[in-house]
Specification:
heterodimer, A: 231 residues, mainly alpha, 5 helices, B: 75 residues, 73% helix, rod-shaped
């Protein structure tokens, strides 16, 4: 018994050495599979990184294009309404009431400014929705790499892209619209301005509650489809 | 006896380190695929997207348009 205790550390060392010698062989058996898995992970990460870069580039391009389109639409409108604008200013200058002249000029500027301000706002909303959709797309890409069926998400993403593009066209159309009061006499001035203000209100709300909200809803649908993957 | 015990412990420590090194060399401590999936299951990101979307304000032109009314009523 005494001898047993005396040699026990030695027995332990021999046992550990045995494991050490056997371990590389054991590890060797699983090594290719693990190395393949590691390589696969690396490739997937690179693919996702590439997708992120691609989405960022697409996003930037789409936003710049939209900005340019909006700018071009406004420039075009500016040229087209030059004659009408001159006619309007002529009529205003012929008004006898100085106060009404000032108010009419101010209202004309405010109506134009409001249209610019709100079309800019809607353009920004669409840019933000595009950014959020890109996040959904990237996330869907990751889910796909991890073996999830992302076909429904991809369809929803495509629908959202179409909705955003439709909304961009609608914003562009709105930016081209002009709100110049048409009147023949001083008595018609109030009614004429009320009418164009009503038209602007109708158009802005129509755009917001139509194409803009539809885009938001489409992006939300894509997000809900992504959420349903439980990824 | 004490000296030999110390050497034995040193030997065991060396062996354990060798085991660890060998295991690391064969990728036993690299993250396996299952763990990689888990790291992608980052609910915060989806929650963040959700938050971003909820924060999108389509706006309301009503107040801006109402501001024109005082001038309109003076015409």
């Amino acid at each position: 018994m005494k001898n047993y205790f005396k040699y026990s550390p030695l027995i332990a060392v021999v046992a550990v050495l045995g494991v050490v010698l056997a371990f590389p062989a054991l590890a060797q058996t699983n090594a290719p599979a693990r190395q393949n898995a590691a390589t696969q992970i690396k490739i997937e990460r690179e693919n996702i990184k590439a997708k992120r870069t691609e989405l960022n580039t697409q996003l930037k391009e789409a936003q710049e294009t939209a900005k340019e389109r909006l700018k071009a639409a406004r420039e075009e409108t500016k040229k087209n309404i030059k004659t009408r604008q001159t006619e309007f200013k002529d009529k205003i200058s012929k008004l006898r009431d100085e106060k009404k002249k000032q108010i009419a000029m101010r209202l004309d500027e405010q109506l134009a400014r409001l249209n610019t301000q709100w079309t800019d706002h809607f353009d920004n909303v669409l840019n933000r929705l595009s950014e959020i959709l890109s996040k959904v797309e990237l996330r869907a890409e990751k889910a796909g790499v991890n073996g999830k069926d992302v076909s429904a998400v991809k369809t929803a993403i495509q629908n959202a892209k179409t909705a955003i593009e439709t909304a961009r066209t609608a914003v562009e159309t709105q930016a081209k619209k002009t709100y110049i009061a048409a009147f023949e006499s001083e008595n018609e001035l109030g009614a004429a301005f009320k009418s164009v203000k009503g038209q602007l209100q109708k158009d802005l709300f129509g755009l917001r509650d139509g194409a803009i909200k539809s885009s938001r809803e489409a992006v939300n649908n894509a997000l809900q489809a992504l959420k349903s993957l439980n990824f | 006896m004490n000296t030999s015990k110390t050497w034995i412990w040193i030997l065991i420590a060396v062996v354990v380190l060798a085991l660890f090194w060998t295991a690391r060399q064969y990728g036993f401590f690299s993250r396996p695929v299952v763990q990689e999936e888990a790291s992608l299951l980052d609910n915060d990101t989806i929650a963040e997207i959700d938050r971003d979307l909820n924060a999108v304000d389509v706006g309301n032109p009503d107040q801006d348009l109402r501001n024109l009314d005082s001038d309109l009523n003076r015409l």
